[in-house]
Amino acid sequence: xxxxxxxxxxxxxxxxxxxxxxxxxxxxxxxxxxxxxxxxxxxxxxxxxxxxxxxxxxxxxxxxxxxxxxxxxxxxxxxxxxxxxxxxxxxxxxxxxxxxxxxxxxxxxxxxxxxxxxxxxxxxxxxxxxxxxxxxxxxxxxxxxxxxxxxxxxxxxxxxxxxxxxxxxxxxxxxxxxxxxxxxxxxxxxxxxxxxxxxxxxxxxxxxxxxxxxxxxxxxxxxxxxxxxxxxxxxxxxxxxxxxxxxxxxxxxxxxxxxxxxxxxxxxxxxxxxxxxxxxxxxxxxxxxxxxxxxxxxxxxxxxxxxxxxxxxxxxxxxxxxxxxxxxxxxxxxxxxxxxxxxxxxxxxxxxxxxxxxxxxxxxxxxxxxxxxxxxxxxxxxxxxxxxxxxxxxxxxxxxxxxxxx
Length: 406
Known about the structure:
It contains 13 helices and 8 strands. The protein is of the alpha+beta class. The chain has 2 domains: 36-77 and 164-250 and 366-394, no CATH class; 89-163 and 251-361, no CATH class. The longest helix has 46 residues, at 21-66.
């Protein structure tokens, strides 16, 4: 037989030559699949390493902020209105009286905003500052009893625990740069999630979703828990990551609205002198309610602030329901006459921003939703921590070679 005189190399060459095209095609597909898997593994490894520290910061600071009101009570910063006799329970002071009460507390300030929180409309917050365009970190807030127009106190200031947690969570005390940096980390986090799912798919198909091999080595058990909890929190992490990244663009979106839609609405006032004598706040709110009768006031922005113009009150109306509370419409009222100037629906990007905020903070469904949000926050911390552990305890090829050589 001729084959008996062939060398081993010759036989292998002949076998490769006789291989069918289908076999070669299957081998090529496997090779491409392996290369793609390695590429996704590299993407998951490095995107996770880049964002893990910052995601841990956001999860750790965001957890107590989910229970913001309860945190105020715990730290003694909560403001509660006193009980009134039944005859005064339905009394309401005018908005102008509420404003005067806040300004009497800070006579050298000018008003910036009057805000009605959805969960406590009887305690409006009046934000004042030395100038109308003073940055938010340098303003003062006064809570006023809407029934009696009496000041109740000031919400937590710069030195409070809640303020520190919020600043770390929003911009790490770095302003717009910090917000945009955290937004970029959010995008990297999303890439880590997607690549992690792709890397997990072969194990999922082979062994099953969420299986933890408890009898294996410790590192394998950690890996299985990392994968299982990661899949459990997948939808929540994607939701919070996307909405968080959107929220970091809030300043840029507001500037775009000011230079576009707001500039169009106040174009007739361009070049006019600033307002000296202002119309009644009650008149401005009444005008806004006639424009949007199915909505209620969310806040009033005073002339010269970022949410208004130098010549207008901007009464921001919102929906009066759980699902519509983030649907807002600004109504511009001439600050000198109280007459309507213009009102338009917000552009799509601000609608997206406003819709993303409750989805990110989980503050629209009461205590049950807060507990749900907090639980998934803790699980995400476990995923991040276990991923960091797996990286720190990874096998070092150099050490392995040294041991084998010895």
